[in-house]
Inverse folding.
């Protein structure tokens, strides 16, 4: 089954404790992206990647890191989490034709609480 | 960068009526405009999309229109049903330079009253 898998689905942690949210897709998609969803603000893009070893900042990259060492994986890293990073996070992937975006497939989301 | 504004933030309609959600975008180079539906506690799912070389697209009860001159696009849902109740997001993709960002609107909570 074609899917985007995020882990963990829920995490409660404390300020400053490094954490990683994993994202894996089995559709051989070139494009992968991370979003955070906050009430009234919709989905805001954190980072995206158009292929292996190619990553770019989205609208809200501060406090986050990503890597794309393999095509299927795109982990989101919070080196020193703070309470303002408490949010619902979605990973998404899509094919990339080289000209414009294609429909994105979203994971089930990761609800992160930073105390 | 791209800026997408979405209205209204909440919309209530009677079952069987039509619903219209409107979005405006700022970057005239944007060329891809998807709409996503998100049910409570679920992931966003694509319901329809349109590209800048097309003015209108329909899929059963759902249609999207695009006015490139005015830089706005709209989602139209006809004969609404209770299962259409969800949050709907519009988005615009700006291909400026090497960037391939997708910018979302703030969402519309649609409630279909039985």
């Amino acid at each position: 089954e074609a899917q985007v898998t995020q882990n963990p689905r829920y995490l409660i942690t404390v300020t400053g404790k490094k954490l990683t949210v994993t994202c894996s897709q089995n559709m051989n998609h070139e494009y992968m992206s991370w979003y955070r969803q906050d009430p009234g603000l919709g989905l805001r893009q954190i980072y995206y990647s158009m292929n292996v070893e190619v990553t770019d900042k989205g609208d809200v990259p501060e406090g986050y890191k990503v890597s794309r060492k393999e095509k299927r994986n795109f982990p989101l890293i919070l080196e020193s989490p703070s309470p303002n990073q408490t949010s619902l996070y979605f990973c998404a992937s899509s094919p990339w034709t080289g000209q414009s975006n294609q429909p994105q497939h979203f994971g089930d989301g990761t609800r992160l609480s930073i105390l | 960068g791209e800026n997408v504004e979405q209205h209204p933030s909440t919309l209530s309609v009677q079952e069987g009526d039509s619903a219209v959600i409107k979005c405006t975008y700022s970057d005239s180079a944007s060329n891809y405009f998807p709409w996503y539906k998100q049910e409570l506690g679920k992931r966003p799912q694509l319901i329809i999309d349109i590209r800048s070389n097309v003015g209108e697209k329909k899929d059963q009860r759902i249609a999207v229109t695009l006015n490139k001159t005015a830089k706005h696009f709209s989602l139209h849902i006809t004969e609404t049903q209770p299962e259409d109740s969800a949050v709907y997001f519009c988005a615009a993709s700006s291909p400026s330079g090497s960037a391939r960002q997708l910018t979302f609107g703030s969402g519309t909570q649609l409630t279909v009253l039985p």
Q: What stands out?
A: Chain A touches chain B through 25 residues (CB under 8 Å). The two ends of chain A are 36 Å apart (CA to CA).
